[in-house]
Design goal:
- By secondary structure, the chain is an alpha/beta fold.
- 41% of the residues lie in helices and 17% in strands.
- It has eleven helices and eight strands.
- An eight-stranded mixed sheet has the order 1-2-4-3-5-6-7-8, with helices on both faces.
- Helix 4 runs antiparallel to helix 7 and helix 5 packs across helix 6.
- The protein is globular and about 40 Å long.
Length: 289
Amino acid sequence: MLPLDGPTSTPWASKTPDVERLRVGDVSLAVEVAGTGPPVLFVGGTGMPRIGWALSEPRVRVAGFRTVVFDGRGVGDSDAPEGPYSIEGMTSDAAGLIEALELAPCHVVGVSQGGLIAEELSRRRPELVRSAVLIASAGRPSAFAGLLSTSGLELSRALDSQVPPVVDVAETVALMLSSAQLQDDDLVTLWAELSAGRAWNGPGRIGQQSANVAWHEREDLEAGWGQVRRPVLVIAFEHDVLFTPRAGRQAAAAMPDAEFLEVAGAGHGGVAVKSDEVADAIVAFLRRH
């Protein structure tokens, strides 16, 4: 069984930041700011609340950075207006947050959908970005990613967003672990228990899922990589079936100032399964920039 790099190995348990609510455009976003030093904005993946950074944010913070985590539109304690949403629109949310907190230029760390936002922010609003870390998100998403996004959106629409939480747990575990790890019943049970307890329903679900589907259908992704004019670290996971290492390498090679790191032994959820390795790579990159 893989070791669990959980909150007990970090100062997260003793950290009790104040939760701010900031108005950005048409939404109010729940935000937590902690630490001192150069600012780092963390942008979560689809349906990922800010607590999802609990295995990475503390290591970055204690390394000497001011960390900012937030619930994106449609998630957690933030507003969930009717959709559809778009990656471009959520990029504007992130830009507004940076401006409201006077963080610019700041480092931006994004995972999965959050990495798409970080990439788009670096391209469209480079004056706000010092550097970007794109985790499990760079390159053209796989055909399976498109199929999964479309099926998830159709299921949410069919059930009026009232999807049983066990569906999200099963999908999370399936994507987080490699095929070999999924054969370990103890490991599957552990991550299922850790992933349980959050129901993500309402208009935010359909909103964010529709943003993913629209992104997967874009035909101009490759053209945008060369327009990312900030230092970038692309982190891919060996067994990621949504954003493969090959896709990440292709995107990094097309970006003017990008580094590429492949982390072995993890699927799409490697930011949690390999949290120490990922956090160490983030800190080392941020210190260089």
